[in-house]
Amino acid sequence: PDVHKQYILQLSSKLSSPTSYEGAVTSHLRMSGVYWSLASMHLMCSSSDANELMNSEEILKWVMECWDEGSGGFGGNVGHDPHLLYTLSALQILAMFEKLDAVDTEKVVGYVKGLQNDDGSFSGDEHGEIDTRFSYCALSSLSILGALDSVDVGKAAEFVGSCQNFDGGFGCNCGAESHAGQIFTCVAALSIAKRLDLVDVDLLAWWLAERQTGGGGLNGRPEKQSDVCYSWWILSSLEIIGRRSWVNGESLATFILKCQDTDKGGIADRPDNVADVFHTFFGISGLLLLGHLKEGDGYRQVDSVYALPVDVVKKLGLKAQVIEMGEGG
Questions:
Q1: What CA–CA distance (Å, rounded) separates 197 from 201?
Q2: For the chain, what is the total number of helices (H) and then of strands (E)?
Q3: What was the pLDDT predicted at 12?
Q4: Which DSSP state fits 150?
């Protein structure tokens, strides 16, 4: 994986440069970009090696500069408004650094708690947009902080459950089109809430398995092109509900490997396209879930619910509900 490590290190320097193209176009979601970069590196080497290569002290300082003391949430960059998306990314970064004690837990919890609505849903920020992505971000954030009981988890789960469609999939809201990315956030949120009983498991697994195309890759919706990122969204969902074997893992792994840049490093959305850190992280994660990359070769396993190295999740004592492979189907 050396070429991919070098890709991430080179990209990290570009992202941190305000004069670079990459730095300019990603400034609004820098926090997520740092998470994808750091998580990719952590999955390819030991925690200590990853932190040293990625300059953990500098990143930690920057992450804390993105914290809004008034609200308790984190923004996507320094001086940006706080949002649940970036609050979760910040906590995931701190978890990998083993620096969760750097945050004012009570204030962060208060921020997340204040975004839950009467129907159990969560707004992404003070402006009120509601999306099932935010339900996952909220429950995952609170779980990482050991404060899941600070919100109404039952209502949160019921709201997510109400967003399941006739085809078994989930959308961004009740009645919205099923989408593989949203399905992960819903299934993982219900996993954290320990309410997978709200999922029509086999119907959902059928819909997810139908996303595999002739080239071996997975798409996010019917009639769309394959995209490496769905290797994560779909495989992790199938892993949680115990149906990973419902897709052809060998052909999927072949598709992901065709999307890597073997000269400059990184993984693209599809073959012959330009690599980016988003697809690099999800491509590596997909190969790990498939068992194509193994711990004995220097890799670390990825947790299908928290999108963090398994050893980090275990150290934090996080326990989500997962249906055992083959159970019930």
A1: 8
A2: 15, 0
A3: 67
A4: G
Q: Where are the alpha helices (DSSP H) in 164-276?
A: 180-192, 201-209, 229-240, 249-258
36-40, 75-79, 273-277, 296-300, range with the lowest pLDDT: 296-300
> Hey, what are 11's tokens?
């990209």
- Yes or no: say if 230 and 219 are a contact pair by the CB < 8 Å rule: yes
Query: Are residues 73 and 87 in contact, defined by beta-carbon separation less than 8 angstroms?
Result: yes
CA pair distance 147, 154, nearest whole angstrom: 14
Which is nearest to 74 in space by CA: 141, 7, 26?
141
SS3 readout for 16-36: CCCCCHHHHHCHHHHHHHHHH
Cα–Cα separations (whole angstroms), residue 86 to 92, 223, 308: 10, 31, 15
Which residues sit opposite 67 in a β-bridge? 74
What does DSSP assign to residue 272?
Answer: T
Residues with Cβ within 8 Å of 246's Cβ and at least 6 positions away in sequence, in order, are 205, 206, 208, 209, 238
Backbone dihedral angles phi then psi of residue 18, each to the nearest 5 degrees: -70, -15
Q: What is the mean pLDDT of residues 41-63?
A: 93
